[in-house]
Design brief:
With 113 residues, the protein is an alpha+beta fold. It has one domain (6-111): Roll (SH3 type barrels). It is built from three helices and six strands. The longest helix has 15 residues, at 97-111. The mean pLDDT is 93.
């Protein structure tokens, strides 16, 4: 079972337009009560930090040492996807609670909540 705050590498293809494609880190943001059901898992898509030169309030930049990922990552809180649980393989990393709180703030901004 996947849990909120965990990070997985998932193949997001096929996509359309400006959607993030290919093998990407995704951060699980759906509640664990939902993740335990045979439904979909809601995630925020990440990209290599070197590709994002500006910081925006709806993005969260995470260092590799914080997330246990192989590189610094920017999670794009305006790129929210719901994925079938069969897309998830091995756990790649996670975010500590303080960084998840920052993610929650960025999500509230992106969704006008």
């Amino acid at each position: 079972m996947v849990n909120r705050g965990q990070i997985y590498f998932v193949n997001l293809s096929p996509t359309r337009g400006r959607e993030q494609a290919g093998q990407r880190p995704v951060l699980v943001i759906s509640a664990d009560a939902i993740n335990r059901q045979p439904l979909v898992v809601t995630v925020v898509v990440g990209t290599k930090a070197e590709k994002v030169t500006r910081d925006y309030p709806v993005n969260v930049r995470v260092l590799a040492r914080e997330s246990h990922l192989p590189y610094d990552t920017v999670f794009l809180c305006f790129q929210i996807r719901s994925l079938d649980p069969t897309r998830f393989g091995h756990l790649a990393g996670d975010l500590p609670p303080a960084r998840m709180a920052e993610m929650d703030r960025a999500l509230r901004l992106a969704l006008a909540l």
